[in-house]
Amino acid sequence: MFVLRQCIEYFVTHGRPTTVFMATLNAKKAFDCVNYVKLFTKLLDKSLPVEIIRLLVDWYSKIYAAVKWEGCISPTSYQKWC
């Protein structure tokens, strides 16, 4: 709510039209939420080589997201493992 309020105040005080439109999107259900610890444990139980699991853990521990809007990029946020 704070960020929304700040955006509205910015556009209103900088001579933009006083009508501010907003749209929201809850994309949580659009993406899988995997418990990676359980996944890697099951892979170990299936005798997958430890080296491959270490590689997967390394890859998945470095996932991050950012938003790009009008040439500006937001600070990155790391994926929360469910």
Please explain how this structure is put together.
With 82 residues, the chain is mostly helical. It has one domain (2-78). The protein contains 3 helices and 4 strands, in the order αααββββ. The chain has helices at 2-13, 36-45, 50-60; strands at 64-65, 68-69, 72-73, 77-78. It has a two-stranded antiparallel ribbon with strand order 1-4. Strand 2 and strand 3 form a beta hairpin.
Produce the secondary structure layout.
Layout (H helix, E strand, L loop, with lengths): L1 H12 L22 H10 L4 H11 L3 E2 L2 E2 L2 E2 L3 E2 L4
Antiparallel strand pairs: 1-4, 2-3
Name its key features.
two-stranded antiparallel sheet; mainly alpha; 82 residues; single chain; 3 helices
**Low-confidence runs of at least 5 consecutive residues:** none
The succession of helices and strands, N to C, reads HHHEEEE
Q: What radius of gyration results from the CA coordinates?
A: 20 Å
Identify the overall geometry: elongated
> What is the domain total for the residues?
1
Provide mean pLDDT, rounded: 78
Structural class: mainly alpha
Strand content: 5-15%
Give the N-terminus to C-terminus distance in angstroms: 25 Å
Main beta-sheet strand count, sense and barrel state: 2 strands, antiparallel
Number of strands: 4
Could you provide a short overview of the structure?
By secondary structure, this protein is mainly α.
